Amino acid sequence: MSLTRTPAYRRIAADLAERIRTGEFRPGDALPAQRELSASYGVTLMTLRQALQELRDEGLIVQQPGRGTFVAPVQAAYRMDTLRSFVDDLREQGHDVTTDVLAVAVEEAPEPGLRLERLRRLGGQPAIHQTSWVPQPYADAVSGADFRVTSLYAALAGAGVTIARATERIVPGLLDAAVAQHLRRPAGSAVFVSERTTFGLDDRPVVVDQAIILGDLMEIRAERAATRLSLQWAGQPSVDLG
């Protein structure tokens, strides 16, 4: 009876794929040089290149001539033309999204409400740190929700709260030490910061959000209609082209 051994290049590909999926090598990271990898695995360059071909075929890496081999970026879009939750939007794009609830607290200052702090993971990797403030009376309506599996918007809808509109701005920022620890990035790393206020039918704020987004994992995308375009510059009145 003969036993079929797994070829060395496939074992190497499987090991590198696992290291990518567990976050040892993150999206956009450069892999070690091919000679370094072949030496560490104890194989020839030809065998190592076969393993890299496997990873490239799976879409896990990209190779740039003259630069090296990189972990493929996560193709996730932060859409600005929807009122849905982060999770619902990303799942519709086909991404595996999970939520860690870091804190849920009822606070009285500066006004009564619920403070909700969450970490969004894409494919198991931290991608978005989100802090939401829900003022009263909406805070009472969602206080019993399990935010690991239920989005804040879904909890509000289940309590009969209708979302009417939202305003949002996105600015560049730098990670502070506390959030950097959650996102597993060095403090001072460049990020996008989304500040969004969501309003109900009575035009009162329902949710005030701040989301810190890793730019190497997500792109910001919007769709524009030819019939109407609104432009605004800081310190200037808006120009409405209708």
Can you give keywords for this protein?
elongated, disordered C terminus, Chorismate lyase, six-stranded antiparallel beta sheet, 2 domains, Arc Repressor Mutant, subunit A, two-stranded antiparallel ribbon, single chain, 242 residues, alpha+beta
Question: Gist?
Answer:
With 242 residues, this protein is of the alpha+beta class. The chain has two domains: 8-71, Arc Repressor Mutant, subunit A (Orthogonal Bundle); 76-222, Chorismate lyase (3-Layer(aba) Sandwich).
Descriptive report:
This protein is an alpha+beta fold. Helices cover 25% and strands 36% of the residues. The chain has helices at 8-21, 34-41, 45-57, 86-92, 138-142, 152-158, 177-183; strands spanning 61-64, 68-71, 76-79, 97-107, 113-122, 125-135, 163-174, 190-200, 205-213, 218-221, 229-231, 239-241. The strands form four sheets. It has a six-stranded antiparallel sheet. A two-stranded antiparallel ribbon has the order 1-2. Strands 3-10 form a two-stranded parallel ribbon. Helix 1 (8-21) packs across helix 3 (45-57). The radius of gyration is 22 Å and the shape is elongated. Mean pLDDT is 84; it is low at 235-242.
